[in-house]
Amino acid sequence: MYILGISAFYHDSAACILKNGEIIAAAQEERFTRKKHDSGFPNLAIEFCIKQANIRPSEIDNIVFYEKPFLKFERLLETYLAYAPKGFSSFAMAMPIWIKDKLFQKTALIKEFNKVLDKDINWNDRLLFSEHHLSHAASAFYPSPFERAAVLTIDGVGEWTTTSVAIGDGSDLKVLKEIHFPHSLGLLYSAFTYYTGFKVNSGEYKVMGLAPYGEPRFADLIFENLIKLNSDGSFQLDMSYFDFATGLTMTNKKFDKLFGGPARVSETQLTQREMDLAASIQKVTQEIILKIAKNIAKETGEKNLCLAGGVALNCVANGILTREKIFEKIWIQPAAGDAGGALGAALSSWHLHKNKKRTITSKQDSMKGCFLGPKFKDDEIEGEFKACGAKYNKLNDNDLIDKVASEIANQKAVGWAQGRMEFGPRALGGRSIIADPRSPTIQKQLNLKVKYRESFRPFAPSVLVEDVDDWFEHQNDSPYMLLVANVKHDKRRIMTDKENALFGIEKLNIPRSSVPAITHVDYSARIQTVHADTNPRYHSLISKFKEKTGFPILVNTSFNVRGEPIVCSPTDAFKCFMGTELDILVFENYILLKDEQDLSLIENYEEQYELD
Amino acid sequence: MMDFLKEMWHFLRVRKKLWLAPLIVIMIMLGGLLIFVEGSVLAPFIYSIF
Questions:
Q1: CATH number of A378-601, picked from 2.170.130.10, 1.20.1740.10, 3.40.50.300, 3.90.870.20
Q2: Within the 12-41 window of chain B, which residues sit less than 8 Å (CB to CB) from chain A?
């Protein structure tokens, strides 16, 4: 039995296919259309899923959409009514769109299925809808390695829900509590994303990366004015400071007055104030998540916690939650945002609608390392490289691993594409840019010459799971780069008084450990543990690098430039390789050196993508 | 359209939100009008209502 899950029409469209409950394939539409956070109907992702499952469209038993449009419409109407006559301009803008398109989403979906799949099938009978936060909860619990767990979902907003607590038991999943719009931790964080001059729905991780440069001097102000946190972890926002319920921006003049000025204009100089604001909202978020988690543990007595929803991508908060040991084990859905809703929608249908039993076969989760996207065969790779005019060599596994490890140790930046593409926002060694973590200059070099992004942004380490404990204050697995932990004291460099006195962005240029490229200014690192069973080739590469240098760590950042979706195909990889100052490209067993390429193929890549 | 109306009616009953029905009807009529006159000479007059 095949179930297709879909998320679309808001943010990060995606598709996923299950075969008898097993996840066969999942991918975001942006990877195919090359449009970041593409929210259109995911026809290319669906086509990929069907091809990967090797079935005809008629074999799909159900298609499940990740949220309920009528319920969302109800929230919009009631919100506008509650705030009327305020918000009339937003209402006048939103309603024609809803009436023209979104309210008739079922009809629109069926039309698309007829176009993309098979027009002779009555898709109306096979189409189901799941609730947004139930989709998130299902994506967190069902693939987890736990028989029982509490499930916490936190995001901006779904239909009504912004935060939910559920209990998963075997194949059952029951929602216990919900916090409803407009009271939203995700939207509070997004308000500060907007206020610090970043794009809402994509700049949140920049705020998180900026936080360690600042002091949380506004945290008390936030708690005293913007949000009322109750003893059970529930919260209410004071909506007089926000504009998102009815307006076209996140914050208003009262918010500006409270924080002493207007929002930063995008792409202008970052000041200590933005860093302090970022540190403050990060601290507030962490405190709220901890309080919610403590209350869930107290009320449910569960030993395990599963997390999903956009806020679950806040790996600093996740790291603290893990270290606090409120729960024995925590599992976070790697595609925690809306793309993962496609997976959750399909899984909720399998277990809750069709009442199929859930079997946990191993201690591992069922995400297959998150490598659920397309893989390319040798003839496809050669064909695409030839069409691009690329000059390449093919090496056997041992020679390739040895050569790449040596080049990285020689400070070369490598574009590394292997096996199936990752599902979700993180590159985990399937479509990554990798480099030497020992280099004190590589962070700046990668940020400015390869990724074309802000210089303050940190890079994450991929570390062999066997060695994680030697290098980081972290003992458990973190295969999806969703936890932040500190570099161990014995690996840190002792700072001079002068260095300690540095402020904000000045801290960036001071090496803080023997692996400066992945050590953030507060000694933290967003860890990815690399496992031989789920990520064998990447594991071999890091092992070889360790053999040559004694360091079981590589810098790992997504294979893309700012504003570009992570590369998918050999053509995408070659274009990014030629458009940036990457030295080497490796796609499966094919290796391309920049020095050997036709320089006339270099194009201005930096300006091809809209800044995120 | 009939399917849509049936589903919307069912939704409002299940959610005990029948009081929203008149509002939705008015909105759909106005919205329909907006879509219908889009690009026509009447558009500026209709948009000014909003």
A1: 3.90.870.20
A2: 15, 17, 20, 23-24, 27-28, 31-32, 34-35
Same fold, A2-144+337-363 and A179-331: yes
Chain A residues whose C-beta sits inside 8 Å of any chain B C-beta: 70-71, 74, 77-78, 81, 92, 95-96, 98-100, 103-104, 106-107, 124
Cis (ω within 30 of 0) for the bond into A182?
yes
Amino acid type, A337 = G
- Tokens 């008084």 correspond to A497
Rounded percentage of chain A residues whose pLDDT exceeds 90? 85
Superfamily of structural domain A2-144+337-363: ATPase, nucleotide binding domain (3.30.420.40)
A258-269 pLDDT per residue, tens: 999 999 999 899
Find the residue in B nearest to A108 (Cα): B4
* Mean per-residue pLDDT over chain A, rounded: 95
Q: Out of A100-104, A151-155, A241-245, which region has the weakest mean confidence (pLDDT)?
A: A100-104
CB atoms within 10 A of CB A332: 22
- How far is residue A390's CA from residue A169's CA, in Å, rounded to a whole number? 52
* Strand ranges for A443-583 from DSSP E: 460-464, 483-486, 524-530, 553-558
- Choice between A86 and A348, residue whose per-residue pLDDT is larger: A348
Residue B38 has pLDDT above 70, yes or no: no
pLDDT at position B41 over 70:
no
Q: Angle, to 10 degrees, between the axis of helix B2-14 and the axis of helix A105-116?
A: 130
B/e letters for A514-536, b = 16+ CB within 10 Å, e = fewer, are bbbbbbbbbbbbbbbbbbeebbe
pLDDT in tens, A340-375: 999 999 999 999 999 999 988 777 899 999 999 999
C-beta atoms of B20 and A107 within 8 A: no
Take residue A409 and report the two structure tokens written for it. 């140790």
Structure-block tokens of residue A242: 């926000």
Sign of the Cα torsion A505, A509, A513, A517 reads positive
pLDDT given for residue B45 in this prediction: 56
Chain A residues whose CB is inside 8 A of the B17 CB are 74
**Taking the domains of chain A in order of start, what are their residue ranges?**
2-144+337-363, 179-331, 378-601
Place of tokens 């959750």: A344
CATH homologous superfamily for the domain A179-331: ATPase, nucleotide binding domain (3.30.420.40)
Q: Which residue of A has its CA nearest to B8?
A: A70
pLDDT of A543 above 90: yes
CA–CA distance from A567 to each of A30, A338, A416, A432, B24 (Å)?
Answer: 10, 20, 10, 9, 44
- Which residues partner with A169 through β-bridges? A148, A172
Residue B23: Cβ within 10 Å count:
13
